[in-house]
Amino acid sequence: MVSVANLRYSVPTNPVVRWLATQERNLNKELPYPDEAAETPEEYVCRIYLQFLWLPQSIMPLQFLIPALLRVTCTSQPSATTSQESAGHPLHDLLRAILLTSRAASQKYHTRIPDLIAEENEPADSEEEYMWYAYQKDKNAEEERLPEGQVEYEAHERLKAAWLEKYERREVQIQMLLHFLLISLPGDHAAPYTKSAQAAIADSLPLPPSLSPTKSKKRKHKDRGTGRALDPPPQSLEERLESYMDKLAMWQLMHSVDSSLNRGRHMSGSAADKGKGQQTDDRDWMQVFCEDVVEPL
Predict the structure, then answer these.
(1) What ranges does the record list as Basic and acidic residues composition bias (predicted)?
(2) Which end of the chain is less crowded, N or C, counting CB atoms within 10 A of the terminal residue's CB?
């Protein structure tokens, strides 16, 4: 049996002191707040993923993602013929619904979410509710800082591109942590997706026309008996993690090229800070993630 361990400390949901009427009106009710007492382990894992992805880093720091997921435990003891190692950890099954390949994560922020923003439809699920909350909050905050006289459409497109880039980076960091976690847990992690899970992901993440398989392609090997193209073997968790590390390395290279253009100004600013006795953190967000989040694990 799979369950979610209780927290060591808890905050009562029925406070002794009631909120004032003005405070009640200011409470945010845009996000789905499930009843945690009746929440299943599957719903808990999904909620943790969405909150760490879409809520601000200040209240959902990535350092606490793994401890939050490790609250999911198996309360039943393995049988005499089944060892703890072979039984596996329940997170292997629970995390399948939110695991993404590097290409699927890229499509999510370059195709699916831009389409949702352009259509402006009502949220269809919990993730869309979180997405719209994060988008509207960041959009309103950025629009307040825009200088007067700037073209609204161009400013909106620039803000949207920066917002998508920000959350794609967040997604990549979370996916890397999830893959690191599953690799470290006991159980068979050679194939993180079953065939049904792969089909569900393929349906929810349609490929663009340039990436869709076509009959005219001759490179695919076909089964001689059926004439059907053979499905490629599923990637292991290690291979998926390596693809994310390659993406991170590419971003690191692009960042170093961009930062070299402003190196003179940066060095002069650093010299001024040192003269004032101030210490600055020159690490980029990728170095901070690797050194402050991944290495302590």
Answers:
(1) 273-283
(2) N
